[in-house]
Amino acid sequence: MIYPTRTAIIAAAAGAPIALAVAILFPVQWYAGLAWSAAVIVLALVDAVARARPGAAGATLDLPATASVGAPIVALAHVTIDAAHAPATAEVALPPDPLVDATADGEAWIALDQGHGTAPIALATKRRGTARFTRLWVRWRGPLRLVWKQRIVAIDAHVAILPDIDAVQRRGSEIFRRHALQGLLAQMNRGDGSDFDALVEFRAGMDRRAIDWKQSARHLKLRAKEFRTERNNQIVFAIDAGRQMTDPIAGLPRLDRAVSAVLQNAWVALKLGDRASLFAFDSRPRLASGFVAGPGAFGELQRLAARIDYSGEEPNYTFALATLASRLARRSMIVLLTEFTDPTSAEFLVQSAARLMRTHLLLVVVLRDDDLDALAERVPEDVDDVTRAVTAAALLRERLLVLTRLRHMGAHVVESEYDRVGERLIAAYLDLKRRNLL
């Protein structure tokens, strides 16, 4: 693509007063006044065909594989103009992406050395997901600076924008140390687990039902079996990515807060030897991963979490949870992070949860809406405040009714503040594990 620069447009426009003056002073030779504009056009045509053509340009874009939400990253644009007389400078521009903000609108000048050059473009991530760039604009001026020569280069560059992994691992480590999970958990659960750990000498305070009478007779001393909490449990994190999960709480969508809490819990679960899996859905299942095990698999869960996209569709609990149940060959713990407001979707959730709990352990996690609580508790000052308070109280009442029904059915429910959901989820997981319910 070739088009005029601002200089060429101004120069051509400057010929209009000259043409008008010639037409007034010399009416017979009025056409002589067009000489200026015609000369500008001819020079622009010469500038367009001189030196490098637009087709000689090529470009690539280097991006980091992953980045955290809110973190600055640098994209490196590499430009090559394969021509005998390449320009000294060129300009590149990135298309906008809803997940990132680019400084200077994603534009940057590149100094070229024999047709090759590289320029950094500063980006700032603002939402979780996968930012993709499929094209890159490259343009440069002709030698007379009257035309732009531009080419749109097709590229395939993407970066997985994840939750703040540093915060996930930092808070996970704090919780891990707080509960003294390595070694101490087995001591806390001695006699409560289902996996045989060791045969030890019976001591005062131990459960007499753990005495192994055959081994005691053989050793002429009382011997007792010691158990530990079962490992290798299957944990499925089912995340509702529907319309209501995209509503923001304190400036961040519910979905992002749910994903951060899931990653914190998954980090602890993998440390404890359990297996973790991700499942995301809205009107239909969108992501269903296999189970991974070991701390080294946490990176795989990070990459999978980046693929959970925002959706404007209503969640279909019946379809999603039935599909999830059909994929599970053994009893698993299903952690469902969701949000509901209308009674219809809540009824579907309760019915689907009842079928799921026939085989599996269900933990439902919802975020408490502080704004809704504030509206219900606010002292009304006018009629509008009364309407808002009544509506908020009705929504909270329906929400409490649904959560109570889930508890009565046997599901475990966590209703947490947005800034403590990760910690509350891990505490519930450890409690269920400690009670050997997984």
Automatic annotation (TrEMBL):
The chain crosses the membrane at residues 7-26. It comes from the Bacteria. SUPFAM superfamilies: vWA-like (SSF53300). InterPro entries: DUF58 (IPR002881), vWFA_dom_sf (IPR036465). Keywords: Membrane, Transmembrane, Transmembrane helix. Pfam families: DUF58 (PF01882). The keyword Transmembrane applies. Residues 201-371 form the DUF58 domain. This is Uncharacterized protein (DUF58 family). It comes from Hephaestia caeni.
